Structure formats: structure tokens, C-alpha cells
Description:
Blueprint (H helix, E strand, L loop, with lengths): L6 H12 L4 H32 L20 H15 L2 E7 L4 H25 L12 E5 L1 H13 L31 H6 L17 E6 L4 H11 L20 H7 L2 E8 L2 E4 H8 L4 H46 L7
Helix pairs in contact: 3-5, 4-7, 4-8
Amino acid sequence: xxxxxxxxxxxxxRHSGRYESKGPFRVATTAASISQPSIASFSQIRTAAxxxxxxxPTPYYPPTQPPSHRRPEYRKSQLHRQYASLLRTMPxxxxxxxxxxxSVEWVNIRRELTKALRKVDEEHAAKGRTDLPPxxxxxxxxxxxxxxxDAALRVVDYFHPxxxxxxxxxxxxxxxxxxxxxxxxxxxxxxxxxxxxDKRGKHDLAMLLMGPIAIVSFPLVSPExxxxxxxxxxxxxxxxxxxxxxxxxxYYELGTQAGLRKLMLLGARVEGRVFDDEGTKWxxxxxxxxxxLRAQLVYLLQSVGASLTGTLEGAGKxxxxxxxxxxxxxxxxxxxxxxxx
Length: 341
């Protein structure tokens, strides 16, 4: 017995047989109907392609990512921007030379540095001082790439554009800027690169930025925190004594001492000025910190004012005494040498 066909399959076969004779005619008609639009669309595409080759589109740069002389996706460019931001936001930076410290030694040094700075913050809180925020968690020690740091330092200190023209995102209002447009004045621009190209090796810190360098950055100028940092990283008694073994036994661990022996203080950058190691120790040795420095400044100004007032008053007093003595002499001469009783 032959197999039965399902209703759906049977209907499909019947419909296919019905339109089998009309298939070629319909296909030919369809091909003829679409031949003209296809040829027209192909010619339009070809014309558009020729026009696009003849007139190249103007490059578009978004305002949040202007063109730069250095490729922004490279790690060197990111380090350049990071170092420039650090130099602008950190008014006090200590420079140390390090000699192949291990990761364990860096961990121990950072731990002891944070512990010493936190102790200073606790002393300020106990005294009720509110002029300085806690700095223990903000002060960082890190290694740097000296060549990139030197380039960022030259841009920050020597490149001061008079006018900064922002990139406009509206192409109809102003033309799209190229990579070498002089109106671009950001840190990675061609203008900044050309402005500091002849300053290479002329900065005061250029002699220090040689070899492996580590920096300690402070967000505020605080002599107390500088003293605490120097007592840990570069102790020199009696001004910067190291903590005692009983007070801080972790400081005398083998890994910590091995790392500290590989550090050497070079200098500091304070408010844009460069100090050597002795100048850095002078900053850390200010009694009373910034408050003590302000008190000394007020006392100096008061003493200068008092001495100036005394000098001005002394001239007037001297003139008064001279005139008074002369008046007495003239009166004696008029009275015949007799003094008035």
C-alpha cells in the first residue's frame, strides 16, 4: 500500500504544479522590471564614490579629545598627563634615588611611612588643629620614569600660553583643527612640544632626574609631615631621629632596613622652587610647622615696623632737641647771659 501524503504537502504540490507553467514568464518579467532601477542605482553609487575620492572629508575631532602631537593611547602619553597633573596639584614633592628595591621592601616602606604620617595627624587632632586635613592616606611614594617626568616638568614650568582657544564641536562655526593647529595648547599639543623643545636639560631639577628616582608627593606644605617622612626615609639625628625599636618594632625588620639603605634623599620641589637636601631638611625642621613659620613672619614684620618707627621718631626727636637747645642759647644771649630762674 503506497504511503499516504499529508494534507499540507499535497496542497503544496498542487499549488506548485498550478504555477509551474507560469514560472518562466514571471521570472523574466521580474528581471526586466528591476533591470532599470539596478542600473540607475549602480551609476549613482559610482558617481558618489568618484565624488568622495575627489573631495576628501574634513577630519572631525570631538571637543573632549582634541588632536595631540603625541598619540594619546600610548602609555607614555598617559604618564605624561599623569605627571603634569601631579606637578600642578602637589605643591611639595620629595625626590629620592632608589637602587633596585624589591616589592616586599616597598610594601614595608609604605607601611612605615603611612604609620608615621598618621601619628602626626593624630597629634593635630588631639591639639584641635583644623588648618590641615589628615594627610596620611593622601601622601604617596612612587617610582617615576625620569625622561617622561622631565618632559612634563618642562611643560608645566615653561609653557604658559597667553590664550587658550577651545576646540569647537560645531563645524559650521569654525573649521576643524588639525593636529598642528597653534590654537591647541594642551599638554600633549604640538604647540607645547615646540615651546619647551629648547629647554631640555636647562631645568634646575634636570641634574636630579637621572637614574632610578622615587618621589613622595604632598598635597599641602606641612613641615610636620615632612619631618615625619624624613625621619622614616632618611633619618639623620638629632634633627630627624628614627623611631625607637620599642615604639616601632616593624621599622627595624630586615626587609624594611634593607629597603631604606637603598634610598637616598636628593632634594625637593616646593611651590615651584627647587631645594637641595639641606634645604629640604630646613623645611622639615621648621618649629611649629606652617603656624610657627607664620608666627615668625609676623614677629619679623612687627620688629621691622618697630625699628622703622623708632628710626623715624629718632630723627624728629633729634631735630626737636637741637632746636630747643638753640632756643635756650638765644634767650640767654638776649638776657645778657643771665639764665631765667
